[in-house]
Design a protein that fits this description.
Blueprint: E1 25-31, H1 35-47, E2 53-58, H2 62-69, H3 71-74, E3 79-84, H4 91-101, E4 106-111, E5 115-116, H5 118-130, E6 134-150, E7 156-164, H6 175-184, E8 193-195, H7 196-209, H8 213-227, E9 229-241, H9 247-254, H10 268-287, H11 294-311, H12 318-328, H13 333-346
Parallel strand pairs: 1-2, 1-4, 2-3, 6-9
Antiparallel strand pairs: 4-8, 5-9, 6-7, 6-8
Amino acid sequence: MEGVDSEHGPPPLTFPMLIEDSKTFALILLNRDGTPYLRRALDYLKRVEYPGQIVICDSSHPEHAGFVAGSQAAYPDLWIELATFPDTVEFFDKLEATLDRLPAEHAMLCANDDFVIPDVLERCVAALSSDTSLSCARGRSVMFQLVRQPDPGGDSNVGVGLSLYPMRSYMHAGCIERTLEFLRNYSTTMHSVHHRALLLENVRYTGAHSGNLIFFQYLFSAISAVQGRILCLDEPFYIRQGRADSMSAQMRRASYEHWPLLITSPDFSRFYGEFRQAVLDFVAARVGETPPTLPLDFDVAAVGLMRRGFCGKEFDNPEEVKFFERAGANSTRENTLIREITQFAVGYPDTY
């Protein structure tokens, strides 16, 4: 089955859980001026009795920084650590500083408007702990949208829409073939469980080699593929919220920095060239001499990456399609989890 290491299968849960040990794992909540979402995320983690260390990585402006500063006192049932920075500090700089000081062997980046499933998170940490050939591990993911819908009685209902948010495995043993497979069938590794040392290496390299919003995400994920195999368990792991007011949604409507206008940008060739060279240089540093055909192979494979970004091509993975069908079917574990999370989110009207 795609998404599960057929030789070993999902690692069993152990107690005490690995995610309870701060030397083993840290969940990093990324935040900037997102108080309503951060409050909701912490309420959710309290509700599911999340047992591990939660590091709030924050660079908010003063009007939001107060909530972050008071979060430890407001949530005594959660194990919260703060990594706070001035609002002038850039994303990669604050992330590098946060990762550099953590003792955890593994770490995950979680957006403040998204939700993790703790038991699958535990299995991902267990997989990384037992298999050094993996650079990161994750499970399946969906994205939900909440839309207010007026009804004839004058009240408002909330409609819930679901879409697949691809998470795949890249399990080729060879670094070059694995990286080309990543390009042909992209899925982000940003929100996965990583070896912290590899994640730190990735953050430093990506921050130094890309400035475009889209291509830094591509580069970050490609570096993960170069670093090692990527495992995707066939279980719900990360539930994302799609929002019309998010930065990416706003840029998608009117910015040359984002798809679809990105492909018409006068800087597109430069963005792609920087991305391409950064990946090829990282591969060469990893494996030494590379085949002379690799640059052309890279470009051919990257056609799939561009097609996905510009055309929105998805659903070419049968196992992902089966997962999404289960997510929409009544009484499945996937559907139950997603319903619980979306119903929980509905209770926070300032987040949609």
